[in-house]
Amino acid sequence: MLELAIIGGGPAGITAGLYACRGGLKDVVMFDMGMPGGQITQSSEIENYPGVKEVKSGLDFMQDWLPQAEHFGLKFEMSAVDKITKNHDGSFKVSFLDGSSQDAISVIVATGSVPKRGGFEGEGEFFGRGVSTCATCDGFFYKGKEVVVLGGGDSALEEAHYLAKICKKVYLVHRRDSFRAAPSTVERVKRTENIELILNASVKKVFGDAMGVSGVELDTKDGIRTLDVPGIFVFVGRNVNNGVLKQEDGSYLCELAQSGEIKVDLKMRTNVAGLFAAGDVRSDAARQVVCAAADGAVAALEAISYVDNFKGGH
User: Fold this and answer.
1) Considering 21, 32, 103, 134, which one is annotated as catalytic?
2) pLDDT the model gives residue 39
3) Measuring CA to CA, how many Å separate 118 from each of 35, 150, 170, 260?
4) pTM
5) CATH number of the structural domain spanning residue 171
6) Within 13 A of 27's CA, how many CA atoms are on the CB side?
7) 254 noted as active-site residue
8) Active site residue 291
9) Are 8 and 82 in a shared domain?
């Protein structure tokens, strides 16, 4: 039986593996269906990770993370996890898509979440070159420039307000005439002078050249409108990768937030003993690499304590 199974190979999962193994656990395996690194490997530039002064691509940034963790004993298996269930003795069963399974005393779920796409022409082509889903990550690149924000929920309005402090002007585009965001957030955005609301409108396409985005074409109630901007931020929701927690009867192994994110306390503990969550899959995640790594460390330290107590009681 494994002492710890880690599901997901992004910054949270790898850091959890590093801390768990360095902290004394012997049988720790991280499972991921692809090569480790997570979503951050798709980023073109990382410049806000403390202590890393050199600007790197996400791929370059993550290349040493797994080897460092493996040095301390983490094992990595490229396997697709189907679901996690609880055994009668309090341990967990990790089942894989190929029909095999492994038991583990504790589990850390670090499967992340992915931003939903806006569905407009050119979105995929210019993703990472003017199309972004993270204002905290990429807002600085548009300092003093004009940008578009697409969305009408809390995230869209909060990110638009954040960008307004950096950018010359923010065009907030929403397909309806009212917002889903909290009233206080809506009022704050409306009071921000350099945010222009474009309601009852949708993004038709983005266009540009080899250098990146140079404009956004909108479909508005008054016809087509073109904005000459170098960037667009898309906030139309996220798909939380919580499928491994779904049980045979359609319920979930632990408590989830309404958004589908895993509810945890400050120690990354779910409401199921021995089951932890870290990174973007957990509730109220900041969706930053440094925060995901911190989550992984906290979850691992708690897992070490749980495994010690579990062994002491068996």
Assistant:
1) 134
2) 85
3) 26, 8, 18, 20
4) 0.83
5) 3.50.50.60
6) 11
7) no
8) no
9) yes
